[in-house]
Amino acid sequence: MLYVLCKRESSLEMIELALSIFHKIDAPDTYSCSNMIVGLCKLGRLESALEIFDRMNRIGVLPTRSAVNLLIGELCLMSGKEGSVEKVRVRNTRRPYTILVPNMGGNSGAIQPAVQVFWAVCSSGLLPSAFVVVKLMSELCRLGNTVEAVRVLRIVEERKLTSVQEGYSVVINALCECCRVEEASDLFGRMLSCGLKPKLVVYNSVISMLCKFGKLKDATRVFEIMNKNRCLPDGLTYTALIHSHGEVRNWKVSYDLLMEMLGLGWIPHFHTFNLVESLLREHGQLDLCVKLERKLENQKLQKLCKGGELDAAYEKARSMLEKGIPLSAYARDIFQQVFQKCGKIKIARQLLEKTERVQEPEEINKT
């Protein structure tokens, strides 16, 4: 009866009828209580659902996993909504009005019951699904309660749940955002010692945090671990390291990192390129400045070709020729292939002939 009222025919009228029937039951069992929790959660009546959960605790009845998942999930969702905006009444005008403003502090009113439900079922040997546990940790981290999030993560680790990898990622990222260097570093080390392989976003968070606090050796070591674990870095990884090395005027490492970044197809930010170029000029490495510019321009051309931007690619190639920058063998090939596919090979070849004329004097000078 309660199953039909709460799940199949869920509505305000039906849930009120179900509640009246439920309150007449002297010793409700797992399924009658769980059906009520599910029905109440679906209609947003979380306070009533929590009352039933508390009653279950008192009489020693354990809810079903699906009921726990829905209850904790809805509480986390409500917490997120509470923390997003807040109503503020503006009264110092002729006509007072209400506006919505970002609630930066975050209202943790709904997250506390979610945590209590989690620990209550956990002590009874029942754990929510991996998805719900990660949602709980994410909301705790969003509210800045990383201590509680770490406690939840410990349970996930002890029970060997499938969410342990994602749980580590969520908590480490939150600790890095809060600049909790020691805690984030310790948790990152623990993640590695457990045999887990961090994702790119975790490596980037840790490296960026370490670079921000001038811990360049530690950041470099994390970068080496990243390469060892075959996790390809992206532009954010290289940018953080390049700027960190640039601050200590280490032109060689900054140059090597930028060339490696370009080799992987990442286009650096204008300020990043200027930083390395100024370091090279400062140390009299003008030949490397020329090499770096060629690498960058060829990489930009390749990106335009791969993106199918023929007009922009043609203008880029023409601009390079005017500056005396030759096309690399790979850039020339991909440029020709793209124009050939579009039936514009003649235009490409005319431009490539100019490229060869630019390259020939350079080859003679080298000999």
UniProtKB/TrEMBL annotation:
Renumbered ranges of PPR repeats: 29-63, 164-198, 199-233, 234-268
Pfam families associated with the record: PPR, PPR_2
Provenance organism: Glycine max
InterPro entries xrefs: PPR_rpt, TPR-like_helical_dom_sf
Protein name, as recorded: Pentacotripeptide-repeat region of PRORP domain-containing protein
Record has Repeat as a keyword: yes
Similarity-based family: Belongs to the PPR family. P subfamily.
Keyword field: Repeat
